[in-house]
Design brief:
3-stranded mixed sheet, 66% helix, 97 residues
């Protein structure tokens, strides 16, 4: 895998797009890994693998009785959103002091 700085990518984008056809290109920003350029076919393959993985995990949870179901899942997600909004409001009010 090729590793480059974001500033290098800006100046030589075409080269790294070509390089990504054979190997992924890792882009560092401020010295930290931030993005990867890869072929669209590789992205599609990885997306399908991830979908298959999560489908298998959902089936496993359903078979083991750990599946919440759509109604309970929605309630859990709504509670998480409310908690996050309350947390954000608290942090915002502290910053404005």
């Amino acid at each position: 895998m090729t590793t480059i700085a974001a500033t290098e990518l800006k100046t030589r984008l075409g080269k790294y797009l070509d390089d990504a056809l054979s190997n992924p290109v890792l882009i560092h920003r401020n010295g930290q890994p931030s993005h990867v350029i890869l072929r669209y076919e590789d992205y599609e393959r990885l997306s399908k693998l991830e979908d298959a993985y999560w489908s298998a995990k959902a089936k496993e949870a359903e078979e083991s009785g750990k599946f919440l179901g759509p109604e309970k899942s929605m309630k859990v997600l709504q509670n998480m959103i409310r908690e996050k909004q309350a947390e954000d409001a608290t942090q915002s009010s502290r910053k404005s002091r």
